[in-house]
Amino acid sequence: MEPAAGMVRPEVLKLSPYNSGLTIDEVVERYAPERVSKLGSNESPLGPSPKVAKALEGSSERARHYPDPASRRLRDTLATRFGVVRGQVMVGNGSEELLSIIAQAVLRPGDRVVTLYPSFPLHEDYAVLMGANVDRVHVREDLMVDVDALVAAVSRPCRLLIFSNPMNPVGSWLGEDELAQVLAAADRDALIVVDEAYAEYASGGGYRSATELLRRSQSSWIVLRTFSKGYGLAGLRIGYGIFGNAALCTLLDRVRTPFNVNAFAQNAAVAAFGDDAHLAQVVRLAISERERVERLLSEAGFQVAASKGNFLFFSCGGNSVAFAEDLLRQGVIIKPWKQPGFENFARVSIGSVAENNHFMQTVEANSSRR
Ligand SMILES: *Cc1c(COP(=O)(O)O)cnc(C)c1O
Prior knowledge:
- With 370 residues, the chain is α/β, with parallel strands linked by helices.
- The protein has two domains: 5-47 and 277-369, Aspartate Aminotransferase, domain 1 (Alpha-Beta Complex); 51-273, 3-Layer(aba) Sandwich (Aspartate Aminotransferase, domain 2).
- The protein contains 15 helices and 13 strands.
- Helix 4 packs antiparallel against helix 12.
- 45% of the residues are buried.
- Pyridoxal-5'-phosphate binds at residues 42, 94-96, 120, 164, 168, 195, 197, 226, 228-229, 234, 239.
């Protein structure tokens, strides 16, 4: 074994590099396109609320001191909104950090973890890192969640049930009745984690947040949300978890680094959370543009999954890496999916009208060239 590989825990060797996609600068450096439309990471085309700029104005002086290690103001704001106490709210350096903390705190080697597939890679990676075994519940042929298979999988003993709803990368979702069925079937000893990174965008189609359904649950549960998507704060790294049980929150709190959320992110999140009108505008644009892009892709002959997120998952008719590279040359960044069985699929974020047009124009130009 090569020395570096011998140095790390064997679990590390099982991880794939995170497919984070290129930055705008990297694309400009590589291809010098006329313009770049970044549609690979589900960021908001409208960015954060103007109230965020106000909250951060002249605040560089704050960099001198450590931030509030308990993020009290933000957690109080969130607790009030969700009708829980501050002790049931944890904030993280992105909800990704919370995923990592949950895995570190809960998973023992050999534990069984149930998740949906294709998956949000971090739901699997942190579990693998801790030596757990991941049991993937594949979507159906029509790309909707296979509720029967999920119910069957979670009723067998498992330590952790973790999935996103709406689901990333596909965009499909569990409606209220389906979610209730899964939650009721789940092994009583399992921790249920519902990652609602896209909840702000999800309405209709029977969607309901797990925060409402889990309130009466006897199980241990955490619902994760983020400021990176609907609130447009991806660059600041801040997300949060609502816990069913303050005692579990207190225990997991021991695992995080003490000053995990920086002062700017804490202030920005409070400001962003207070601007419902901005969020409503973001959501309106995303939904109307998602419907338009979905129609255009279907008309162009692509299979597109129904989505409640600010993104679409579609079959590009061939290897998605080559497909995405063609788009990249013309300045459009999308995410080719690389998980086995889905290599012909790509995920595109819903951007501004101009960005979405740029995407569709390059797709159409490439299909006519083929
Ligand atoms: C984007 C995303 C996250 C990451 O959120 P951060 O708060 O930026 O770390 C978590 N879960 C899912 C399913 C996501 O799509």
